[in-house]
Structures are given as C-alpha cells and as structure tokens.
Amino acid sequence: MVNGVNVGGTPVCWVSTQTQFAGLYPGCVPTNIVDPNGPSVASFNYLRHETFWSLKQKLDNVGVSIGGGLWGIGLPAGEIRANLSADARWATYDMISNALPTEFVNCTGLRMCLANGGAPVRWVQNTNAPVSARNDVVEVALEVNVPLLKDIPMVRELSTNWAGRYTKYSSFSAVESWKGGLDWHLNNSIRFRGTLSQDIRAPNLNDLYQPPGVGSTNFSDLLTNTSNTTRQVSRGNPDLTPEKARSVTVGLVLTPSFLPAFSFSVDYFETKLTDAIITIGYGNVQNLCMASAPNYDSPFCSLAIRPITNPSDANYRTAANFPLEIRNSPLNAARQETHGFDFQLNYVWDMWSGHFSFRHLATYQPLNETVNLPGQFPTWAVAPDLRQTTFLSYQKGDWSLSLQNQWLGKVSLANSDNAVNGGSTNPTGTQNYVEPKLPSFNVLDVTLSKTFHLESGGNTEAFLTVSNIANERAPLYGSNSGLPGLFYPTQPYHDDTGRFFTAGVRISF
Asked: How many beta carbons lie within 10 A of that of residue 2, not counting itself?
C-alpha cells in the first residue's frame, strides 16, 4: 500500500499515487535502485541526457603605420621624428549550448523539492548559457621623438619622447593612454633616462560576458536579517571599465671609457594600478553594501538581486526582500602597488685564447601588494624580494660553454599580528607559519656546444644542456586550505622541474 493505494508489491512512481499530481507525469516509470539488474531502460533514458557547449572566439585585425623624419623639421640638435599608427580590431565571443545552467527542475508534486519551496538546478555539469557578444576597437597612436640639445657643456645629447594613444571600444567609453620620456647623455660615459606613463588594460570578452553558472546556497542576509536558500550565480559583468596604471621609471647607465665593453645600469620603477578587475561574491562584501545606507548605492549592492529595488519602500528591509539571487561577478574594485629596482651589468673580454661574455640581471622588489576590497588590509605576492640571473659564456674556436645561474632570495610568509612585509603591517593576519620564510633557491644550467662546418657552406651545431644540474628542489610552503596542505611554489618564480637533459642539433644553410 502507498498512501492507501494497493500497488501489488510492484515499485511505482510516488507521484502516480497522488491524485492531484498524477496527471502531470503520465507514463511515469520508477527507477528501481534496489533491483540488482538496475533501473529500467525507460527510466534510465529519462534521467540520462547528453549536454554539450561550444565556445568560439574570433579576432580580426587590420593596422597601418607611417613614420620617419618630419621633412627636415627640427631643432639645432636634430630632426624631429614621429610615427603615426592606426589599428582596428573586431572580436567576437559565441557560446552555444543545448542545456541551460539556469534551468531548474519543476518540482510540482515531487518530494525532491527543497524544504523552503525552492527547486534544484536541473543540470549539474557540462552546461553553459548561450552568449553572443562582440567588441569593436579602434585605436590611433602618435609617437614623437624631439632632440632638444646636443654637444654643449654637460650635454652630449638630450632628447624627449612623447606618445599618446586614443582607444574607442564599442562596449564602453573611450580611453586615453600616454607616455613621456627624457633621455640625457651627460657625456660618453654617463646617461640618465626616465619615463612617466598612464596605461590601461581593457576587460576581455570573458570578463564582460562570461556565461552564467547557477547553484543553490544557504545565505544569511544582513539587510533583511533573514537566513534562507537562494540561487548563487557566477557571471561576467558588462559594466566593467578598463584598469588604469600610473608608472614611473628613473635610471642611470654607465659606460666608462677606461673599461671598454663594460656597461652598468640601474632603474627605479613604481607602478600603481587602480580599478583592477577582481571577481567578488556578494557574501564577502555585504558589510560594504550595508555601509552605504540609507541609499544602498554601493556598487557591491548590485551583486544581490532583490524583488524590491527602492530603498524607500517600507518592506525594503523585511524578509519580503530576501535576495532572489546573489552573484559572483568581476568588479573594478582592487588596487595594486609595486616598486623596486632593476640592475644590469654587461662585460666582454678575451682570455685563455678565447672570448668571455658576462651578463648579470637583478631585480629588487620590496613591495608588491594588492588590496582586493576597500578597507581591507593588503595581501602580498609570494615572491622573493631579490631575484638574480647570471649568464657566463666562453667560446674558443668551434667550442662554447655557457652557464646560466638563477638565484631567488628568501620569501617572507608571515602575516600574523607582528608581521611586516614591504613596509606595511597587517595587524589582523589570520595565517601563522611555523617556518615564516622560504629559503633562497639557486638553479644552475650548463650548455656545451660544438660547431661543425659543412662543405656546402652551412654550419651544424650539436649541443647538450643540463638544466638544474644540482637537482635543486623548490621550497615547500603551507597553503591556507588546511594540513598538510603543502605544495611547491610554481612559475614564474620557483620551478620544481628538477634536473633534466636536452640534446639537439641545429643546422643552418
């Protein structure tokens, strides 16, 4: 008996025994999960459905440029040179799908409905919403190099360089970027250089139009003081604007005449990035939305979709205004700041009947912090403050030996109450490390090569490279996901590939 109906010991659909709902599901066949032979073919086919999606992105581009001297126009120091360019791009983003992630099960008369009357998502994997979007871009850029002074006391050569770019997007307003630079050769041995620029990075089509993905979540809403189940939607944001960066570099280059074939340079760099794009969920920014009361006009409030949109409505803060859905969506909310120094040293000389070449690159970057949300404390990149790469090669006749050494300095992981990183203190750190520093890391690569001259006039070079010859292992550090939660840092800094060999032959004609 099922609800007073005699089914004779044969499994039947529960809904078929409900007079008021039986007509909604004619011919219902039960899925018998107890039968060792499995469910019937009919019920299996009803449950089984093939889903697929396909994304096609296309970019068409055309550009033109013209440059050179301005027909003798210039100053006593030399001719003014310029370059004018134009570029047009047409980008399309087309997603097709046979099953929608926003499709929910019709739970009428079914016991699978959620207790609060909601419905589960019909498809649980391999679905995407159809999207057809495009972004057309037109750019015009002008660069001008103006020689100002030449061959006077304290100035062997002084020039300035200016560039500007106007970019018009079909998906948002036009933006301008620019750069100004100064190049001052004090004499043949000392040179100063510097640039100031404003740059942009436009959101791509996926940032703007990423298809929505839907799930269910339990949510405690601060506005209505209500807890319930609602839909959680992840999607793009067509209201994004370009990221903006202001950068400055100042440098010195030394090429002393008393040491031929030697050069040394040092450059200071600083970049401040604003309106950086970051994906944010409403559950993480409720307080920021609430802080914008009584108008609730914070951009973070847009991540909660409510039935009542007018804050002046008497029911705006009641349970009747519990969110219909909350969103995870990209916003122009983050900012990033970095500064440091780049060093470069070059020297070549002859010795031991051969030719030596030495090059050393180093970067000291004490600050690389990101503030993901207004009012939050910065987070710091897991990256060494000091990075150095050294190249040394020796060539004698047809033989050559090359060494490349990469050295990464220590990395500070501490962000506890007394942690200081990049000159900033985080008084509310939530992660403590037993070992608060990653040790330094050093990798040496060696290449040996021999050139053979062909009778036809070409050359063949045979080479053997041993990468990470000492088989150094990258340092482990703990993740935030729990214990043991240890993993190796990945590129672009620490590489845990280990020792490996590469042998080959290059032929040139």
From this structure: 13
Sign of the dihedral defined by the CA atoms of residues 280, 283, 288, 290, in that order: positive
Give the C-alpha separation, 184 to 154, whole Å. Answer: 10
**pLDDT given at position 416:** 39
pLDDT at 35: 67
pLDDT value for 429? 47
Helix (H, G, I), strand (E, B) or coil at 282: helix
CA distance 47 to 361: 61
DSSP per residue, 81-148: EEEEEEEEEEEEEEEEESS-TT-B---TT-TTS-TTS---BS--SS----EEEEEEEEEEEEEEEEEE
Q: Provide φ and ψ at 32, rounded to 5°.
A: -95, 95
SS3 of 341-363: the string is: EEEEEEEEEEECCEEEEEEEEEE
Grade residue 425 by pLDDT with cuts at 50, 70 and 90: very low
Task: Give the pLDDT band (50/70/90) at residue 48.
Answer: confident
In this prediction, residues 433-457 reach a mean pLDDT of 87
Cross-strand partners of 350: 355
- For 394, the 3-state DSSP assignment is strand
DSSP character string of 301-329:
GGGEE-S---TTSTTTTSGGG--SEEEEE
| pLDDT tens digit sequence for 103-130 | 777 777 776 664 444 567 777 777 888 9
Q: Using alpha carbons only, what angle is made at residue 402 by residues 397 and 405, rounded to the nearest 5 degrees?
A: 165
Name the token pair of 13. Answer: 């659909």
How many helical (H) and strand (E) elements, i.e. helices and strands, does the chain have?
4, 25
Residue 26 phi, psi dihedral angles, 5° rounding: -65, 140
Closest CA to 498 of 461, 472, 466, 477: 472
Residue 92 buriedness (CB in 10 A; 0-12 / 13-18 / 19+): middle
What's the pTM? 0.79
